[in-house]
Amino acid sequence: MQESFGAYIPFVEHLGFEMVFFEDGQSELRFSPEPEHMNSFNVTHGGALMTLLDVTLATAARSVDKTSGVITIEMKTTFMNPASGTLTSKGRLIHRTRNMAFTEGTVYDAQGQICAHATGTFKYVPKAKGIGTQISELSTD
Length: 141
Known about the structure:
The protein is about 15% helix and about 40% strand. By secondary structure, it is an alpha+beta fold. The protein has one domain: Roll (Thiol Ester Dehydrase, Chain A), CATH 3.10.129.10. It has a 6-stranded antiparallel sheet with strand order 1-2-4-5-6-3, covered by helices on one side. Strand 4 and strand 5 form a beta hairpin. The chain starts with 9 loop residues before the first helix and ends in a 15-residue tail after the last strand. About 5% of the residues have low confidence.
């Protein structure tokens, strides 16, 4: 059971994301896509990139308070170049209020080329109690 993200996230473990760091409003993750993560053009599927960005933004938000959880309120992603090879995703907390985090992040390919960029808004919530936690217990009210 992987906890390097500050929480056990089965989907993240399944995808094989590696946490490089998350401290002081910043995060960095590494992802080595497998053949099952490719699209019909044999580059990393946009859904895998969006998941990588979602986790990167969330960990940037949580990096200033690792005792809290976050839930995604909204995320906008722009795809700029095909993503192939080992990918690095870097996130940054831009602004924080008591309950909300505003973030941005970028995915780079092995050559340092920007592949995708996202901005996201997250709500701070009590950390999930475990795998069985219901989303209704994490209300966005």
